[in-house]
Amino acid sequence: MLPTALNDIDSLDGSINGPVMSFSFKRKETRTEDVNITFHIFDKKLTDPSCSYWKQNLSSQKGLWSTDGCNLEHFDRERGVVKCHCNHLTNFAILMSPASITETESVHHRRLGVMSIVGCSISILGMILTISSYAYFWRAVRSNRSIILLNLCTVLLQAYALFLAGVDKTSQHVLCTSISVLLHYIFLTAFFLMLSEGCIIAQLVLRPLDTRNRLHTWLGISYGVPLVIVIISAAVFRLEGYGNDQFCWLSIDTGLIWTFAGPALAIIGVNSIITVAVIKSLFGTSIMSKKEIADKMKKVHLFISLLYLF
Q1: Are 31 and 25 in contact (CB under 8 A)?
Q2: Is domain 106-295 classified as CATH 1.20.1070.10?
Q3: Can you give the residue ranges of every domain in the chain?
Q4: Distance between CA atoms of residues 239 and 116, nearest Å
Q5: pLDDT digits (tens, 9 = 90+) for 115-167
Q6: Euclidean distance between CA atoms 58 and 105, whole angstroms
Q7: At 172, phi and psi to the nearest 5?
Q8: Which of 39, 77, 207, 219 could be stapled to 245 by a disulfide with Cβ–Cβ 3.0 to 4.6 Å?
Q9: CB–CB of 191/166 below 8 Å?
Q10: Under CATH, to which class is 15-98 assigned?
């Protein structure tokens, strides 16, 4: 009964893909209310949902679909759910269009997929070679730092393998969510293991007299803190944002990505500070060593000079 496109600058071109919902207040006074609306769409093959409302033009007695005051909150193509937020009440609908992935975009997507496969495969090979080398020379290289490094390589090996095997399993919602949660935990663990290794290096260089063994503490932090972060994130977001119709990873729209990016950036910052402090300490040690050599040379030169005077 209502058209989906009009010759108007504000009109939207697409198909109504869901029930048209109408809301109003049966009161005399005029009031504005924010509403959250969940639509269950008819055709899951359509894409680009637009939260729209029917805007009546009183002067021309015509109308059009407009998005003023309405925003898209979430789109789950697998379950056929679209969530909208509007700051007014009227007639609402979801307008969607056929998938408009151009040939160029499809080629870029395939190229990115090939790059990911090649890059992760090279990384997996590097992890395997590192683990094998340390295992073969274990008696010579055994230390707390080596144990942390082997844990890091093992975790990254699992992360890359899981990424290649399941990042595109978007057709199965439960499986995709599970893979996203596991990737969230594994990659966070990798970053915390990097932090632990940085702290161990700092202890060796900056506090060489401190011989306390904190290996179990660092391993507990590396595996325990990420688990707490993932559990809290999953509970707060109710698993919303773990996977979407494009990939099985953390969603950017819901802000869930910051539960990974935030700790990762903090760890990068701490490790950067540790790196600067270690380099400064090593540089200072090198200068002191050179000064000691220079002082010895001066004493020898002075002794030779005294002998010459005699």
Answers
A1: yes
A2: yes
A3: 15-98, 106-295
A4: 26
A5: 888 999 999 999 999 999 999 999 888 888 899 999 999 999 999 999 988 88
A6: 42
A7: -110, 105
A8: 77
A9: no
A10: mainly beta
